[in-house]
Specification:
The chain is an all-alpha fold. It contains twelve helices and no strands. It has one domain. The longest helix is centred in the last third of the chain and has 38 residues.
Length: 247
């Protein structure tokens, strides 16, 4: 995903809006000015700055940056969040407290950023899922189009936003799950996250859970396959030498 895919899976600081340091309502002139300043200050490799400018100037690919940033958050809070993320690694409790300043979609982006670096426990994964479920495509579309109108950009359409959200939430889930080094720890956290949510009669949450479990399957399958092969190999050795005490 443009502006969010990194070796760590998800990174708010690599989003084009963050790289160029512009508001989501910035128009073409403001983006060009910010690009020139960023090049002069060498805030990032020029190739990255050029790519960020291209993304923000191109409505079709700009959408991915819009949904994966701090949409509809006041500029002061945006700067506070980015400053904290640049300065240190947040402890889980501090991350949870800061996330309460954000509404659903930016909260999910913030939590995904944090837990692409610090493994989440069950409650943190549940908070991510709940934030995703609360991000209604219609409300996100309205916020994006309000910002685009101020920026002089053509408006987005609902289906494109809905698809961008589906891809974003899958990316977030994979980023959070990839931090687990121990498959047993991951399984325990996932179980604790989803069990309290299974009783909720919420079709949107059910859809988010489906995406999340699909991502978990992709992350866990290699380890499960390795374990299955080890079990099969042990069984074969046992068949061949059933009385060998070392088998």
């Amino acid at each position: 995903m443009t502006g969010s895919a990194t070796p760590l899976g998800f990174d708010l600081l690599s989003n084009p809006f963050a790289i160029l340091g512009v508001k989501m309502t910035a128009d073409a002139r403001e983006i060009e000015d910010a690009f020139g300043d960023a090049v002069a200050d060498e805030v990032a490799p020029e190739q990255d700055l050029q790519r960020a400018r291209q993304v923000l100037m191109t409505p079709r690919i700009r959408l991915e940056a819009e949904v994966s940033f701090l949409l509809d958050v006041d500029p002061g809070t945006v700067q506070e969040v980015l400053k904290i993320l640049k300065s240190s690694v947040l402890a889980p409790d501090a991350a949870a407290a800061l996330s309460t300043k954000l509404h659903s979609l930016p909260r999910s982006n913030f939590l995904a950023h944090v837990h692409a670096r610090v493994p989440a426990d069950g409650s943190a994964l549940a908070a991510l899922l709940q934030a995703q479920a609360a991000a209604a495509p219609g409300a996100v579309l309205d916020a994006i189009n309000d910002a685009r109108e101020a920026a002089g950009m053509v408006k987005a359409d609902r289906e494109a936003v809905a698809q961008a959200l589906r891809e974003l939430f899958e990316t977030q889930a994979k980023a959070a799950l990839a931090t687990f080094k121990n498959p047993d720890t991951a399984a325990e956290a996932v179980t604790k996250a989803i069990e309290p949510l299974l009783g909720a009669s919420d079709p949107v949450l059910a859809e988010r859970l489906d995406v999340f479990m699909s991502a978990y399957g992709q992350i866990s399958d290699p380890e499960l396959s390795r374990r299955l092969e080890a079990i099969r190999a042990a069984c074969e050795r046992l068949k061949e030498r059933p009385k060998d005490p070392g088998r």
